[in-house]
Amino acid sequence: MPARQPISTAPKDGSRITVFWTDSDGVANESIARWDKEDGAWWTYTDSNTQKKIEPTAWRPSSADED
Q1: Which of 1, 28, 62, 65 is nearest to 54 (CA)?
Q2: What 3-state class would DSSP assign to 6?
Q3: Which SS3 state, helix, strand or coil, does residue 59 take?
Q4: From CA 45, how far away is CA 54, in angstroms rounded?
Q5: Nearest 10 degrees: CA dihedral of 28, 62, 45, 29?
Q6: What is the pLDDT of residue 17?
Q7: Residues near 60 by Cβ (< 8 Å), separated by ≥ 6?
Q8: Of 47, 62, 65, 64, whose CA–CA distance to 10 is shortest?
Q9: What is the pLDDT of residue 61?
Q10: Which conformational region is residue 40 in: left (phi greater than 0), alpha (psi within -120 to 50 degrees), or beta?
């Protein structure tokens, strides 16, 4: 598994990557996310129907089994 990297170094080309972020309850999360260049934000699915704008602190490339 690749090491975590600062979010500032994450690709912003629309590819899916694994990000690490903390929600409003202070719970640490790891999820697949994409950068949306139109609104300049990171988005992830919280369930199969709901997307959420997040502010990740770190990232790592997604492995093949996560795609």
Answers
A1: 28
A2: strand
A3: strand
A4: 10
A5: 0
A6: 95
A7: 1, 2, 3, 4, 5, 17, 18
A8: 62
A9: 81
A10: left
Q: What's at 34, amino acid-wise? A: R
DSSP assignment of 12-41: -SS--EEEEEE-TTS-EEEEEEEEETTTTE
Q: pLDDT per position in the chain (67 positions), as tens?
A: 778 999 999 999 999 999 999 999 999 999 999 999 999 999 999 899 999 999 999 999 866 555 5
Tokens linked to 56: 């990740």
The pair of structure tokens assigned to 44 is 């992830």
Are the C-beta atoms of residues 65 and 30 closer than 8 Å to each other? no
Sign of CA dihedral 67, 22, 1, 13: positive
Q: Where are the domains of the chain?
A: 10-66
pLDDT of 65 reads 58
